[in-house]
Amino acid sequence: MPDVEMKPADKKEEKKDDKKTVKEEETPKPPPTPNQEIKSNIVLIERAVATLEPRFAHRVLRTLTSLRKRLDDTVLRKAVEEAYVKDSPTKQSLLSWLPAAQSTDTMEVDSAAQASAPAAAAAPEPVPEVDMYLRLLMIHHLDASPSTYGKAIELSQQTVEKMQALNRRSMDPIAAKVWYALERAYELGSQLAEARPLFLAAQRTASLRHDDETQASLINRLLRSYLEYSLYDQADKLVSKTVFPASAGNPQWARYHYYLGRIKAVQLNYSAARENLQHAIRRAPAAKLAPGFYQAVHKLFVVVELLMGDIPDRGLFRHPVLEKALIAYFEIVKAVRTGSLAQFQTTLAKHAGQFEADRTFTLIARLRQNVIKTGIRRLSLSYSRISLRDICVKLHLDSEEDAEYIVGKAIRDKIIDATIVHERGWMECGGQKGGYGPEIGDAFSKRIGYCLQLHNESVKAMRYPLNAHRKELAAAEGAREREKELAKEIQEGDLDDDELGGGGEF
Amino acid sequence: MSSLKTQYTDLKASFATASPDLKKCGTLLSQLKLGLIQAGLLLPQGDLNANDLVVAREILEIGAFWSIRTQDVPSFDRYFSQLQTFYTDYAHLPPSQHEYPIRGLHLIRLLTQNRIADFHTALESLGAAAADSPYIAHPVNLERWLMEGSYAKVWGARAEAPAAEYGYFVDSLMGTIRNEIASCEETAYESLPLKDAATLLFFTSQSELLVFAQARGWQVNLTAGSITFAKKGEETMDIPKERIIASSLLYARELEQIV
C-alpha cells in the first residue's frame, strides 16, 4: 500500500529533478560534488522503484566506483540529513554508524536541514532502497580504512539482515552490491571463511526468488571465497550444482568466467579454461578502468595459452596496462618459445615470489614438459635425422635414456611425426604433412560458431523499452492516414490509373 | 569414553611396534570408529574439544596407514575423505605430523589411477609450505617425470620413497608406467631388439617380456631376436561427411535468421 501512495509524490519529484538534471547537463563543466551526486542518485533510485525499471538503479550503481573514492564522514552525514528530512528511526540508525561530527559541524548541518525543511515538509519518508543505498555507501567508506573493518562487517551484517527482512524485488540490484560490499568487508577483516555460510544461505534464497542479480553476485562471492582458500573441489562442485543466471550483468559474468577459468586450468582442462578466460577478457570493463582485473585475467590467460602449447601474441606484452605487470610472464614465454629448459628454470626461480603471489606458480611449474615438447618439435622441424645424444645435449636432459623415452612419448602424443631407430640411436623425422584435412574444417567451424554465437548474443542483449512500440505504431498510423489522404487527393485529382493503383495497395 | 581411551592407547601401542598385528588393529579400529560415531567425532561439526579432535584425527590416521598395509585401497580412500574434514575445516588444531605423509599417499594413489586432474586439484589445495615436505615432493616429482616421459627417473625413484607405505603404490605405479612405455614404443619404433625392449620396459628376464608382449599383441621373432610392431591402420583419411553436412545446414539456418 505505501508504495501506491508514494507514487504521485514521486512523480512530482521526478519532474523537478528532470529539470535539475537538465540544468546539470547544461553546465557540465564543474563536476558534481559527491553530495550532489548522491542526491541525484537517490532520485534515480526512487524513480526506479516507482517505475519498476531496474535500469535507473543500474545507472546509480554505475557511479559507485568513482563515488566511493570521494566519500568521507561529512559527506555521508550530509547525505543522510538531506535524504531524511524528518527524524525517523532509519535516520537515527544510519547516523549512529558515523562518528559524531564536531559540534560546529552539526550546527551547520542542522540549520541547513531546517532551512530546507519547510520546503520539503510534505516529502514522504524515502523508500527503503534509499536507506540501503546509503548503507552501501557507508560500508564502502568503512572498508576504506583498516581501523573500521570491524565496524564495516557489523554494519554489513545488519544491512543484510534488514535487506532480507524487507524482501523487495525493486531492491535486488542494490542488494547484489551490498553482498559485494559485505564480502569486501569480511575479506579486508580477513574473516572471509566465516562469511561463507551466510553466502550459501542467501544464495539459496535468491535462487528461490529468481533474484538473478543477487544470485550472480553471490555465486561469484562463493567462488572467490573458495578459491581464496584453494578449495578447488568445492568450487567445482558449486559450479556444477548451480546455474549462473544468464541475465546477469557483464561485470558478474566477467568474474564468473575468470573463476571458471581458474578452476578449469587447475583441472588441466586448458581449452575450456582458455575459452572462459577469453570471455572474461571480452566482458571485462575497459583496461584503464579496472586494471587489476585486466591484469589478473591476462596473467592467467598467458599461462593457459602456454600450457596449451600456444605462444601468446607479443603485442599483449606491449599493452600499456599490462606491460609492467606481465614482465615476469614475458620472460617465461621467451623461455618456452626457445625451448630452453635452463632459461626456464632460472626464470622460474627468479620470479617465484611473484608467481606465488599471483597463484600461478603451480601452473607455471607444469610448463616444464611444454618447454621440452617445444624443444623437441623445433628439433624435429629443423633436422631430418638427429642422434639422441644431440637431443640430450641440446635440451639439457639428464641422460640419453631419458631422451629416448621423452621422444617416444612425444611421438605417441602426436607432437612430432618421427620414428626412433634404436640400433643406431637416432630419431628420424617424417616429412611434414600438408596443412589440409578435416582439422582445417574443424578450426573454421569453431570460428564460425563463435561469430554466430556473438551475433546471437548481441541480438539478445538489445533492449526493448516498454511501450516503445506504441510510438512506432502511432507513427505508422499517421503514415497510413497520410497515405489515405494522398489516395483521396489522387482520386479527386486527375491522375493516371496506374498511380492510383500503386497508392491504394498500402 | 574410558573404554575408548584404553582402546586408543592399545591401538597406538600395537601399531607402533615393528611388525604390528594387522588383524588385531583392524578390529580395534572398527570398535574405535563406533565409539567415535557415538561421541560425534567421526564427522565433527561445530565446536568440539580440541583434544578429542586430535585423538579422533590420530585414530583415523592410523586407520589410513593400516589400510595401506592391508592393501585395502578403498578403505584408504574412506579414511582420507574423513580426515580431510580435520585437515581443512579444523585447521586451528595443532598440525599433525602424519598429515603430509597421508596427503602424499593420496597423491600417489591418484597418480596410479592416472587421475591427473584430481592430482593437480589436490596439490593446489595444499599450501606453498607443503611442497618442501619430502612426502609431498616425492609424488610431485613422480608426476613431473611421468608427464615428461622420463620414465627411467620414475623407475629409479622407487627406492627413494620417504615412507614404507609408499612402496605399495609405487609397485602398482610401475604397472601403469610399463603400459605407458609400451604404447610409446608401439608408435615410435618399427622394430626393436628383444634385449633392448626388456631394458626399456625394466624387465629382468626375457620370459617376463614375452608374456607382456603377448598381452599387448606384439609380433615376436625369436630367431632374429626382435619385436616388430604392427602399424595401426596406415592413416586412412576419412572425410567426416556427416559432420560437414550438419555444420553446413547449421550455418544456413543461422544465416537465414540474420538475413
UniProtKB/TrEMBL annotation, chain A:
GO terms for cellular component: proteasome regulatory particle, lid subcomplex. The keyword Transport does not apply. GO terms for molecular function: enzyme regulator activity. Residues 254-434 form the PCI domain. Residues 1-28, 475-491 have a biased composition (Basic and acidic residues). SUPFAM superfamilies: Winged helix' DNA-binding domain. SMART domains: PAM (SM00753), PINT (SM00088). Belongs to the proteasome subunit S3 family. PANTHER family: 26S PROTEASOME NON-ATPASE REGULATORY SUBUNIT 3, 26S PROTEASOME NON-ATPASE REGULATORY SUBUNIT 3/COP9 SIGNALOSOME COMPLEX SUBUNIT 3. This is PCI domain-containing protein. It comes from Roridomyces roridus.
TrEMBL record, chain B:
Gene3D superfamilies: 1.25.40.990. GO terms for biological process: proteasome-mediated ubiquitin-dependent protein catabolic process. It comes from the Eukaryota. One of its GO terms (cellular component) is cytosol. Residues 74-241 form the PCI domain. PROSITE patterns: PCI (PS50250). Keywords: Proteasome. InterPro entries: 26S_Psome_Rpn12 (IPR006746), CSN8_PSD8_EIF3K (IPR033464), PCI_dom (IPR000717). Belongs to the proteasome subunit S14 family. PANTHER family: 26S PROTEASOME NON-ATPASE REGULATORY SUBUNIT 8. This is SAC3/GANP/Nin1/mts3/eIF-3 p25 family-domain-containing protein.
